[in-house]
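I have been asked to look over a protein record a colleague put together. What it holds is a sequence and that sequence's fold in token form. Please read both lines and tell me whether the tokens look consistent with the sequence. I do not need a full report, just your reasoning and any doubts. This is what I was given:
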Amino acid sequence: MAPEVSAAGRPIVVMGVSGVGKSTVGIELARRLGLDFIDADDLHGPENIAKMSAGIPLVDADRWPWLDRVGAALAADPHPVVACSALRRSYRDRLRATAPETVFVHLAAAPARVQAQSEAREGHFMPPALLQSQIATLEPLAPDERGLTVTVDAEPDELVDRIVGLLAGERGLPEK
């Protein structure tokens, strides 16, 4: 049986591959819920940014210190919304080690849609060429993980409406 998904009083991580819309959706979700927003991309060290900017995928040894900073940010803020790829179960477990009540919202989209969104965005250090490595790395939420999956098939406002509804519904998160 899947754990309860309620986000009331819990940190929320909007997760998924690069370019799927985590930051855009996360910012609006935080605004609607009256919560702080944290972009995990801002917590990458300069070495990680340099690697990704050069088109080199990160390996787990690169990710662990970054995930520890993200976990510390989750634990330090009572109820943040964080945009973070959190692609593998082990990465989500790492975040839950410091913020065990975290609820994950997986933004899932067809690779062609994400590729188009990645190519359209400007000024981001993650080049669209790394998308395939992210897709290959992604492990969807397991049934025993607290979270939900939302298909990216609409504009961000509509996706946030859907997320707020899914989190609020019978699960106790007050809509704001």
